[in-house]
Amino acid sequence: MKLPARLEYLERFIKFVSTFLRHRGLTQRRVGDIELATEEALVNIFEYAYPKGVGDVEVSCRQDSDTELVLEISDNGIPFDALSLPDPDLTPDISDRKIGGLGILLIQKMVDEVRYRRDGERNILTFIIHKT
Amino acid sequence: MEINIQKEEKALIVSVSGRMDAVTAPEFERELVDCMNEGEANFIIDLGQLDYISSAGLRSMLITAKRLKAMDGQILLSSLRDTVKEIFEISGFSSIIPTYESVENALSQI
Q: How far from A127 is each of A17, A76, A107, A122, B88, CA to CA, in Å?
């Protein structure tokens, strides 16, 4: 599924992913976890990938083996490896706590394996999901 | 996402149901800012019917909590479901925003 990188399309992307995961037999709990990781990745792209205008995001889902599902989220935006960012500091109290920076942490907690690669002009974020 | 607001003597009880994501979280934030502008300073956010929260929702919670702290108010959470509780734990929010098993428990802390 390829759509403009805009927040108004978030729901359509999420439905696309959750329908795929449900049909492959994942529990509602796991589907929710992957929906969360997908939202975090997409919102990053919506906000940062195209500073000078608009572009697209493509989400593709496939089953690689009996036990492994693969989600790929790609864009043509500026090179951006979110996985290389330092982890947010979770210790400060309300007044000193920084706003933001949690998305990548949530992706890493929710998905079994996350990989980033730059392929030509594309950023490609890959989620590997173990079915069991 | 749906928001219901109920006024109690000591606090405003804000019940949020459905999904708090990047699309709906700003609505939650606006609603609370409106209440603060009307002079409310003590909030209990009842998340008993909330199915999903993303970092956008956490962000709105933190912004609201910061504002309330600056005006000597408070925000307490209640009735988190397991999935939502997990997100609060991963993000370290459980240790900065007090969380209670029920609205009644939260109310007794104000």
A: 12, 18, 9, 16, 22
Q: CA A105 to CA A101: how far, in whole Å?
A: 8
Integer Cα distance of B61 and B42 in angstroms: 14
Question: Which residues in chain B come in under a pLDDT of 70?
Answer: none
Is the Cα torsion angle A9, A11, A12, A17 positive or negative in sign?
positive
Residue A48 parent element (H or E): helix A28-48
Chain A interface includes B30 (CB < 8 A): no
DSSP class per residue in B19-71: EE-TTTHHHHHHHHHHHHHTT--EEEEEEEEEEEE-HHHHHHHHHHHHHHHHT
Contacts of A39 in chain B (CB under 8 A): 21-22, 54, 56
* Candidates A94, A96, A99, A111, partner chain B, best to mutate (most B CBs within 10 A): A94
Contact B42, B72 (CB under 8 A): no
Whole-model pTM: value is 0.94
Both tokens of B11, joined, read: 């606090």
Q: Does the predicted interface ipTM exceed a cut of 0.85?
A: yes
Residues of chain B above pLDDT 70, percent = 100
Instruction: Check if the beta carbon of residue B28 is closer than 8 Å to that of residue B16.
Output: yes
- In tens, the pLDDT along A61-113 reads 999 999 999 999 999 999 999 888 888 888 888 888 887 789 999 999 999 99
What is the C-alpha separation between A12 and A71, in angstroms, rounded?
A: 15
